[in-house]
Amino acid sequence: MNIPTERPHRRLDVWQKSMSLVKKIYDLTENFPKKEIYALSSQMQRSAVSVPSNIAEGAARRSKAEFLQFLNVAQGSLSELDTQLELARILGYINENQHKDINSEITLIFKMLSGLIRSIK
C-alpha cells in the first residue's frame, strides 16, 4: 500500500512545532504523581495532541472557513494547555524552569497560529 508522505499540514511550521510540544508534554507528565495519570496529566496530553490534530484536520478541509475554524480550535486547546500547565506549577508537579520552557513554546505556537489565521483571512 503506497501512502502519500506529503500531506498539506506537514509543510506547516506551526504543525511541526506543535508536534514537538506534544512530545515535551508527554515527557513532562511522565513524572507526575501516579494519582494524576487519569486526571491532569491525561488532560494535558489530550490538550497538547489536539493542537496538531486540529491543524492537520483543518489543512485537509476544502474551504478557508473550515480551516480557520480548526485553527481556532487549536488555539483553544493551547489556552487549555496553558491553564493546565499553570495548575501543574501551582501543585508542584513542575518547577519554574519547566513551566517557563513549555509556556514559551505555547506562546510561540499561539503567535504562529494567529499569523496563519491572519494570512488565511
Give Rg in angstroms.
Answer: 15 Å
Based on secondary structure, the structural category is mainly alpha
Mean pLDDT: 93
**Span between termini:** 37 Å
Could you state the order of secondary-structure elements as H and E? HHHH
Rough outline: elongated
Show unreliable segments.
none
What fraction of the residues are assigned to beta strands by DSSP?
A: under 5%
Proportion in helices: over 70%
Please provide the count of β strands.
0
Largest β sheet strand count, sense and barrel closure: none
Number of helices: 4
Q: How would you characterize the overall build of this protein?
A:
This protein is mainly alpha-helical and 121 residues long. It contains 4 helices and no strands. Helix 1 runs antiparallel to helix 2, helix 1 runs antiparallel to helix 4 and helix 3 runs antiparallel to helix 4. The mean pLDDT is 93.
Task: Give a short summary of the structure.
The chain has 121 residues and is an all-alpha fold.
Topology:
Blueprint: H1 13-29, H2 40-59, H3 64-90, H4 96-120
Throw out a few tags for this protein.
121 residues, mainly alpha
